[in-house]
Amino acid sequence: MQHLDKLVDLVLFHAVLEWVVEPQQVLAALYDALKPGGVLSLMFYNVNGLLMQTVVLGNFGYLQAGLSKRKKKTLSPDYQRDPQQVYAWLEACGFNIETKTSIRIFYDYLRDKTRQSERFDEILALEKQHCRQELFLSLGRYIDVTARKPIQKDEL
């Protein structure tokens, strides 16, 4: 909030939460930056998607190492997030979760990577069809959550 002159209606916070050490403090700061009724779009790297891809690729060494990176300076996120934990953090801040959408449910798991471009329209249609349905919701590479800061009753 220290860099804002006033509260905002919308915060897009995509692919950042998985890089921060203290996510609960960051989410609380985002909550404080929003006007009552404001919306947070939070997209984060899903640990379930990473686990699924690791198994599909047969990378059992990485799995046995607890999905921890060997090299500290890589493009892979430092802190893959458990969706249930993120949802609990959002609710603890005071947010009301409105939607959950999975990103890259099928695309990343294709063994034949040429299919990603050759059959892109079909894959995209499947992604759109299943992106908000469990079991698929929990397996996407990323999850985008739309959460709203409540309007205070005394402001109505």
Overall description:
This is Methyltransferase domain protein. InterPro entries: Methyltransf_11 (IPR013216), SAM-dependent_MTases_sf (IPR029063). The chain crosses the membrane at residues 42-63. GO terms for molecular function: S-adenosylmethionine-dependent methyltransferase activity. This protein has helices at residues 23-33, 47-56, 60-64, 83-93, 114-118, 120-130, and strands at 8-14, 34-45, 96-103, 142-148. The protein starts with 7 loop residues before the first strand and ends in an 8-residue tail after the last strand. It has a single domain (8-149), classed as Rossmann fold. The chain has a four-stranded mixed beta sheet. It has 156 residues and is α+β, with helices and mostly antiparallel strands. The radius of gyration is 18 Å and the shape is globular.
Layout of strands and helices, then pairs:
Layout: E1 8-14, H1 23-33, E2 34-45, H2 47-56, H3 60-64, H4 83-93, E3 96-103, H5 114-118, H6 120-130, E4 142-148
Parallel strand pairs: 1-2
Antiparallel strand pairs: 2-4, 3-4
Pfam families: Methyltransf_11 (PF08241)
Protein name: Methyltransferase domain protein
GO biological process, one term: methylation
Strand order of the largest sheet: 1-2-4-3
CATH architecture: 3-Layer(aba) Sandwich
CATH topology: Rossmann fold
Fraction of residues in helices?
A: 25-40%
Main pleated-sheet profile:
4 strands, mixed
By CATH, the superfamily comes out as: Vaccinia Virus protein VP39
Point out poorly predicted stretches: none
Mean pLDDT: 88
GO molecular function: S-adenosylmethionine-dependent methyltransferase activity
Protein name: Methyltransferase domain protein
Keywords: Membrane, Methyltransferase, Transferase, Transmembrane, Transmembrane helix
GO biological process, one term: methylation
